[in-house]
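Quarterly update from the structural biology core.
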Amino acid sequence: MRGCIKDKVKILIKKYKTEDPFIIADLLHIHVIEWPLHEEINGLYQYERREKFIYINSSLPDYVQKVICAHELGHAILHPKTNCTFLKNHTLFNINKYEKEANLFAIEMLISDEKIENYKEYSLQQIAAIEKVPLEILKLKFQNKI
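Predicted structure, tokenized:
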């Protein structure tokens, strides 16, 4: 599945000429809505009546919203008819297959293999801080299996 996810991300980036999950969602006619969600919910993906929606907690900083958007876009692409939530206290450590796949989709979208090449001398913690991505999601990029 890892290679399939990476390939899907590469195809999207090449087709739409951007790595920005907000732009790609818009071009795919996925509605992205910032909303004051409960503090425990960072975002969620919803499929209803053949329409796709990504809700992102409006209280989050922009760089976190970008990660959430990429994660939820992963659900929209990989699990289009499954409604999923991105819970602040659980998702990054969740062993749920769908969540891991959406996290892998997000990190592949946010940090390309080419960009990683520029960080050969950096630790994962340093890369996560520079790129403003959660360390737990970044680690997925370096694991052999989902």
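The radius of gyration is 14 Å.
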